[in-house]
Design goal:
Number of helices: 18
Largest sheet: none
Shape: globular
Structural class: mainly alpha
Number of strands: 0
CATH superfamily of the largest domain: Farnesyl Diphosphate Synthase
Radius of gyration: 20 Å
Order of helices and strands: HHHHHHHHHHHHHHHHHH
Distance between the termini: 44 Å
Amino acid sequence: MSSNTPFLSTNRHPDVAPFMDSAEVFSLLRETSRTFSLSIEGLPASLKDEIAVSYLLFRVSDYLEDHETISPKRKIALLERWDEVLEDEAELKSFLNELDTIPHRPNDPEAEVAYRSGSLLMALKSFPQNATQTIHKRVRETTRGMAKWQAKGPRVEDEAEMDDYMHYVAGIVGYLVTDLFAQHSRGVARRRDTLMPLAREFGLALQTVNILRGLRKDYDRGWIFVPRTFCSSHGLTPSELFSPDARERALHVVEELVEKAERHLMSGVAYIRLIPRHLHRLRLACMWPLLFAAKTVAVSRNNPLVLSGEVKIGRDAVKKIMRDSAIWGWSNAWLSSYTRKLLTSSTI
């Protein structure tokens, strides 16, 4: 890191928790994830606010875990400090002071979310007690899990280890969303016990696709989330996955990830099918990230760009998926058929 790397100034937080209204929350949400903001903003009003704030609190943990320049030891300390803030907000100012020492890119929305953590926690207090308790619990579980994995190191031995990592960063998010849905809908509450294991699978589906999309970026920052056993079955080590000389075998490893993503995604379909059909906005909020992920899986299959860059789906595909699902998403049969079509075709 060069000596002229910009740092966030300590005068950024004269008031550690200024009020943040709903409009500011959603502006910050759009800056950090346009994809998830599409889903969240379509939810009923009170539920929309709860999930938006939850998502941004998870992003504070993500920012600390994913930071490109600070050491694993420092990340663990910061994640532990953030966990302390979630337990006792009296620790907030010292947490923000520590953020001041972290190098960041200018106008980084991820850093801005971390600096607005006090305001997000203030917004959290405006929610019903059961929602507040649920959000605190799940964000803390994820934060501690991230610290655990930073201590473990940047290699994944087998699929069980991969799933353990993904459980902390995404499966728990599925639990949270399901709990909040259940608090707002008796129909969901009656099916909660059936939904919860599928919620974890849904989270694992989206995270598997994130890993597919970010293979090269993660490798460049020193992490490889592809299980060693996936690589060794094709005569490769994880680091050899990115060698141009091993491209054909590496694409076989990518295919294993694709197949894994497909399995989890079909569990995600089962999850959505259990949400009562009259709760169309809840179904769409789940449907859009799932269908975007399914399309990403299709364009990742046998695609060398997965290993050298980042695979993305185009805006036209996003718009068509949203339009089709808004019309037909009430139908469970349509959802299953459409998902399979997306998974097996490079065009919609």
